[in-house]
Write a structure and sequence with these properties.
Blueprint (H helix, E strand, L loop, with lengths): L14 E5 L4 H12 L3 E6 L2 H14 L5 E4 L7 H14 L5 E4 L15 H27 L4 E6 L12 H21 L5 E7 L6 H6 L16 H7 L10 E3 L6
Parallel strand pairs: 1-2, 1-4, 2-3, 4-5, 5-6, 6-7
Helix pairs in contact: 1-2, 3-4, 4-5
The structure holds NADP nicotinamide-adenine-dinucleotide phosphate.
NADP nicotinamide-adenine-dinucleotide phosphate binds next to helix 1 and helix 6.
């Protein structure tokens, strides 16, 4: 699977929304999807970072992207309905949705976890992807092969001390993925999977492991193989599965 080679135009004519598209893995995914022919919709909280990704896509001559700045920590159900309405107006459907934006919170014993931070991490990492998926269902249903991917982590597949709200949010995402997959299988062409990127040199990884040499880790653009696979026709009808971008499935 890791030697999978996607066709260069695998995602031609695909409309794909990526959250947290301004930096790290989300930025690399948006660029990888665009490189394979997709039109990407870039969602994130920093308009400046999203514009930089937009400009890079334009510079490469790939399909023109769209930009939707939104702070997921503040976003309400109405905000997600507005995002979906804007996509509907511009594109009329959605073929892919990569939930990638997340906040780390702090690495703290559960008994000492800060309540306000708990709520924020749950809002960004769990409630926002739920509300965005729900708001986009009609758009996804208009695709002949729609792929929804939730980003999780190894600490969301096996509990580990001190990972607190972040670890629990990843468990919640795995559960949400399975429930959506089960509910949507059969009656729709929407498939739903999760992916654990593994250790990747990004800002979040630096915050979690400040003493680590990032040079020992893969860079975001080096782990895109399965992300592209999950968005394209080669994974058609694959649903309800937990993937790893590096190494074998758990
Ligand atoms: N890196 C790893 O080793 C690793 C391992 C396992 C899982 N993951 C998962 O991979 C995904 C990507 O993480 P990353 O490592 O690429 O981290 P990152 O570089 O920190 O990127 C996270 C992205 O999410 C955005 N974001 C955070 N809070 C947001 C909010 N309130 N509203 C909108 N956007 C927000 C960030 O925006 P700003 O740029 O404005 O901060 C950034 O673009 C996450 O789901 C993470 O849990 C990463």
């Amino acid at each position: 699977m890791h030697d999978y080679q996607p066709r260069k135009d695998l995602l031609h004519d695909h409309i794909i929304l990526v959250t947290g598209a301004g930096d790290g893995i989300g930025k690399a995914a948006a660029l990888a999807f665009a490189r394979h022919g997709a039109t990407v919709i870039l969602l994130g909280r920093s308009e400046r970072k999203l514009e930089a990704v937009y400009d890079e896509i334009e510079r490469q001559g790939w399909s023109q992207a769209a930009v939707h700045p939104l702070d997921l920590a503040q976003a309400t159900a109405e905000d997600f309905i507005r995002v979906a309405a804007a996509i509907d107006k511009e594109f009329g459907r959605l073929d892919g949705l990569l939930h990638n934006a997340a906040e780390l919170g702090t690495l703290t014993p559960l008994a000492l976890y800060n309540d306000t931070l708990w709520s924020r991490v749950m809002q960004v990492n769990v409630t926002a992807p739920y509300l965005l998926t729900r708001a986009c269902l009609d758009l996804l249903a208009r695709s002949s092969d729609a792929s929804v991917v939730f980003t999780t982590a190894d600490v969301g597949r096996r509990g580990r001390a001190y990972w607190g709200a972040y670890g629990i949010s990843c468990f919640a995402l795995e559960g949400m993925m399975q429930i959506w997959a089960d509910e949507l299988e059969g009656g729709t062409a929407i498939r739903v999977n999760s992916i654990d990127p593994g250790p990747v040199a990004t800002a979040m990884r630096r915050n979690a492991y400040p003493g680590e040499d990032p040079g020992t880790l893969r860079r975001p653009q080096e782990i895109m193989n399965r992300y592209v696979y999950l968005m394209g026709a080669d994974s058609k009808s694959v649903t309800g599965r937990a993937f790893c971008a590096q190494g074998e499935e758990h």
